[in-house]
Design goal:
CATH superfamily of the largest domain: FAD/NAD(P)-binding domain
Largest sheet: 6 strands, parallel
CATH topology of the largest domain: FAD/NAD(P)-binding domain
Number of helices: 11
CATH architecture of the largest domain: 3-Layer(bba) Sandwich
Radius of gyration: 24 Å
Shape: elongated
Number of domains: 2
Structural class: alpha/beta
Bound molecules: flavin-adenine dinucleotide
Number of strands: 21
Distance between the termini: 27 Å
């Protein structure tokens, strides 16, 4: 067993020379290290925090925000081994094929790779998140015993499925630090805890990383001279390190086209966007709660637009969930009675439910992270987020909800009322997934992206980025399973690139 090393105990001025330095011990960094652990590479995993939460360390994540209300920058992520999985919800769902496509109604869309090129990595990613066997949209046979699917008339919305990272031994999802600490100890990976990378230093020709500056909160400093470096500090901190490392590239590393930090994305989760009535009153429990499928995975149903519907109606992705039961007001009750009469169905046992959603934002270059003049305890400039949401984000999702309502009526199963007409009303119920996406976007053209299709920073041959900051568009699925599949693909690329 190789115990992690506490960087605070290193003699000041220590120089480390690994083949590969991975900056950040969240799920991306840990999974990359383990995927490469059986190669000949000497790997150094540098993690800012220790094994547990430490307020002084967490404070380095503080920053500012303006625009649309958003989670405080030091509340929506965690800075210790395991990263933000130390408080994640464990919701998993693969991205859809359409998420990778160039969608002519969504500016800046189109990944330089297809969903197909991730297929070979999803099973491994699924194992890492411990969400049980890969079932998702093949759930039909398994769920039959647990209650009937709500019939929907033909149309653009179908019942899709989440799986949860919750099948291990408790109701809690997999916390990557605690879960994989022993695997790291048993491997050849050297883990350096309480080790903050404070600068990425390029060679004078700006084509390669020469060294990394490291510092600890007890005043030690050290240097790392790796052959290859992967930045895996999360979708916000990746930006901070790239922008703050501006001694050779004066606008920041990879920022020659002013793209680093732009296109910030998250999945908004507006609450109570609609009220769904089920005429028979019978709703299978997997709609508004998670449910273990026998000895199998924990799952939950959601309503998703099909790729064809998205193309035809020019909408973005969304995953609509059924939430808690609600009481209808008098107008609502009257609407149910008249609709049921018109359809010729019995609605005497009707039940109503609040509807929520996790949705895809349209990419916006002005939704961005920049550096401020304020500095953290190690002298690194803090971040500021400018958060936006467009009118179209609201109107496109309403089209999807209207289609769901139409299909419920067509099957004579139920009806749907949209609760908000105005964006302002809707924004008041807005929550966020705390998924930090898009800030080092992937694009084949260096003029339009920070990293290439292999996640290499354009023009810098030995610097890569892992994590959801590379997503050029966001999809509506939760990101972690997907960023892990991408990271495992990156591991395969690095095996060749480092040979
Ligand atoms: C409340 C909450 C709920 C969530 N729920 C879900 C969910 O249900 N499903 C889902 O898919 N996703 C969810 N997420 C998102 C999920 O947690 C992230 O997608 C995931 O953790 C990102 O992994 P990462 O490794 O890229 O980054 P992180 O998890 O952010 O890890 C980055 C690591 O880098 C370290 N680090 C930072 N700066 C430095 C530095 N300068 N030097 C060295 N190390 C550094 C940090 O300490 C951290 O350990 C949730 C997030 C939050 C906050």
């Amino acid at each position: 067993m190789t115990a992690p090393i506490d960087a605070r105990t290193l003699p000041s001025g220590t120089v480390l020379t690994p083949d590969l330095a991975i900056i950040g011990g969240g799920p991306a960094g840990i999974s990359l290290a383990l995927a490469l652990a059986n190669t000949k590479l000497n790997i150094l995993l540098l993690e800012s925090g220790g094994e547990n939460f430490d307020p002084a360390n967490q404070k380095m994540y503080a920053g500012d925000a303006d625009g649309v209300h958003y989670t405080a920058l030091d509340a929506g992520r965690l800075r210790f081994l395991g990263g933000s999985t130390n408080h994640w919800g464990g919701w998993c769902r693969p991205l859809d094929a359409i998420d990778f496509e160039k969608r002519d109604w969504i500016p800046h869309s189109g990944w330089p790779m297809s969903r197909k090129s991730l297929e070979g990595y999803y099973q491994h990613a699924q194992k890492l998140v411990e969400a049980g066997p890969w079932i998702y949209d093949k759930a039909d046979a398994i769920i039959a015993a647990k209650g009937e699917l709500l019939p929907l008339g033909d149309g653009g919305i179908y019942t899709s499925w989440f799986q949860f990272s919750k099948t291990r031994d408790s109701d809690l999802p997999t916390y990557f630090g605690h879960r994989y600490e022993d695997d790291l100890k048993r491997s050849r990976v050297k883990v350096l805890l309480n080790a903050n990378v404070t600068g990425i230093r390029l060679a004078p020709d700006a084509k390669r990383v020469e060294r990394l500056d490291g510092a600890t909160l007890n005043g030690k400093s050290f240097t790392v001279k790796p052959r290859f470096t992967v930045l895996a500090c999360g979708g916000m901190e990746n930006v901070r390190l790239l922008l703050a490392s501006n001694d050779v590239m004066t606008a920041g590393i990879g920022n020659q086209n002013d793209l680093v930090g732009r296109f910030f994305g998250d999945n908004p989760t507006p609450r109570d966007v609609g009220t769904m009535v089920v005429f028979s009153g019978a709703l299978a429990p997997y709609y508004n709660n998670t449910m273990q499928m026998g000895d199998g995975p924990v799952m939950r149903a959601t309503f998703s637009p099909t790729g064809d519907f998205c193309r035809a109606k020019k909408v973005a992705g969304s995953l609509t969930t059924v939430e808690q039961p609600v009481e209808l007001d008098e107008t609502g009750k009257a609407a149910v009675i008249t609709t049921a009469l018109a359809l010729g169905v019995d609605a005497s046992s009707a039940k109503a439910y609040s509807i929520g959603c996790g949705m895809e934002l349209l990419p916006d270059p002005d939704r961005r992270l920049t550096l401020t003049g304020e500095k953290d305890a190690l002298g690194l400039p803090r971040l500021k987020l400018h958060m936006t949401m467009a009118e179209a984000d609201f109107t496109l999702y309403r089209k999807t909800l209207q289609e769901l309502g139409r299909q419920l009526l067509a099957s004579k199963t139920g009806m749907l009322r949209l609760n908000f007409d105005k964006r302002e009303e809707w924004s008041k119920t807005m929550d966020w997934g705390n998924h930090h996406l898009g800030t080092t976007r992937m694009h084949a053209d260096p003029g339009q992206g920070v990293v290439d299709a292999n996640q290499m920073v354009h023009g810098i041959g030995n610097l890569y980025v892992a994590g959801s900051s590379v997503f050029p568009t966001y999809g509506s699925s939760n990101p972690t399973l997907n960023l892990l599949a991408l990271t495992l693909r990156l591991a395969d690329h690095l095996k060749k690139a480092t040979a």
